[in-house]
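Class prep. Sample record?

___
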Amino acid sequence: MTRIVTINQKQGYFKCVYIRFFQNNESLYGDNIILKMGDTKVKVVFFDLGFTLINFEGDFHEVMTESYLALARSLISAGCQLREQDFAAKYNEIITSYYQCREIDLIERPVEESLRNTLAFFGQDHIPVAIMEKAIANMFGVTESYWSIESDTHDTLQQLISKGFQLGLISNASNTPDLNRLIDRHDLRKYFECVIISAEEKIRKPDSRIFQRALNRMGVNPENAVMVGDTLTADILGAQQAGMRGIWITRRAQRPENLDAINRITPDRTIPDLSSLVSVIDKL
């Protein structure tokens, strides 16, 4: 007996045709069995935050340096015996080393760990938590001021919700308060039923576990969800490894990490901007 399987994905079924041959070849017939396919309709759309919904408008390295100096000044004003430039330089060295490490092990360690290591280097390893938290907030206060909402973000999210989609956010960030302030500063929280932050999860995209946690919290199967983001590795590959589909938004994607991955990672769809998403997602 031979089985021939034909698939009609648009109408949502498998058609299995069993063909039986008799030894004398005098009789030939087939049995048709209709098996319903799994529902692959998109129900949930997850978004990245930085360079997807909001954009950094400034010289990144200059702003980082400015923020590290703000961190140092806050600590000094609280009584820490430090030299501003020396502390900022050492913190930059330690946090850069951490950034390189997390790209390999995909473990998100809170920024407080890098700060404690820097303070310990200068013999200031007994600083109260409240002073550290204020200094970190001052540091991120510098960078947060350079993030601006994309012009099509609110309209796109509103359209998706009006069409019945549920929305979630999955973002890599080393500091939860910083990420939450960015969400609220740009009035984005009202759109999302689920916000996943790597600093809370202790793992980063593209680790498939962070996507699975997002799926679990939304109560949705991976085949019914898509991820929209600007980074091929973190957003697209990570989502695909979790069984989701990935939509790559390219307007802010001209960065080394994407150029290195463009020949080995294939998005399910590519869009130039968020406003293009509404029409594309209906065709998935």
The first strand starts at residue 2 and ends at 8. The chain has three domains: 2-36, 44-56+149-281, 60-144.
